[in-house]
Amino acid sequence: MSNDYGGTFITLTDENGEEIVLEYLDTVEYEGKIYMAFFPTIDEETDPEEAEESEEYGLIIMRVEHVDGEDELVTLDSEEEAEAVYNLFMESAFEDDEDLEGE
Fold it and tell me: Across-strand partners of 21?
């Protein structure tokens, strides 16, 4: 992960061999598994207003799997899993907001 631009960024390679740069947001645990949340970065060629309306630029949640001695990020298996983990991330985000307001 890179911290060159103020945030933490990772580069993933999709199944088509294309690189995707994601900004790391948070990590949560659900049913003994670790999940990470990211936002995709917007490149120079993408209109920011179009990106906000596009489903491709929404929150990305991936599960950490330990494979052959290394951690890999994998997509979630079901809508139920995605919804439960999404709710945990939202709770965490709102807790962080409340903590900032209390300072």
Answer: 11
* Residues 6+ positions from 9 with CB-CB distance below 8 Å: 1, 2, 3, 21, 22, 23, 24, 41
Sign of torsion over alpha carbons 55, 56, 58, 62? positive
User: Which pTM value belongs to this model?
Assistant: 0.76
Q: What is the pLDDT of residues 76-93, one digit of tens each?
A: 999 999 999 999 999 988
Task: Compute the distance between CA of residue 10 and CA of residue 36 in angstroms, rounded to an integer.
Answer: 12
- Are 41 and 23 spatial neighbours (Cβ–Cβ below 8 Å)? yes
Q: Any idea where the domains of the chain sit in the sequence?
A: 9-102
**Cα–Cα nearest to 11, from 21, 2, 3, 23:** 21
Distance of CA 82 to the CA centre of its chain: 12
Query: pLDDT tens digit string along 2-52?
Result: 445 567 999 998 889 988 899 999 999 999 999 999 988 877 676 666 656
